[in-house]
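Thread: Newbie trying to understand structure tokens

Hi all, I'm a second-year student working on a class project, and my supervisor (Dr. K.) asked me to get a predicted structure for one chain before our next meeting. I've only ever worked with sequences, so writing a 3D structure as a token string is new to me. If someone could post the tokens and maybe explain what I'm looking at, I'd be very grateful. Here's the chain:
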Amino acid sequence: MGYSAGEQLINQETKSARSDENTS
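---
Reply by user tm_fold:
Sure, no problem. This is what the structure looks like when written as tokens:
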């Protein structure tokens, strides 16, 4: 995998933020 643990965490937070924006 080309993702580091830090990048995966950032990716998850970005997805969560996008989901929150869509829900609003």
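A couple of things are worth pointing out once you decode it. The mean pLDDT is 74. The first helix runs from residue 5 to 23. Feel free to ask follow-ups in this thread.
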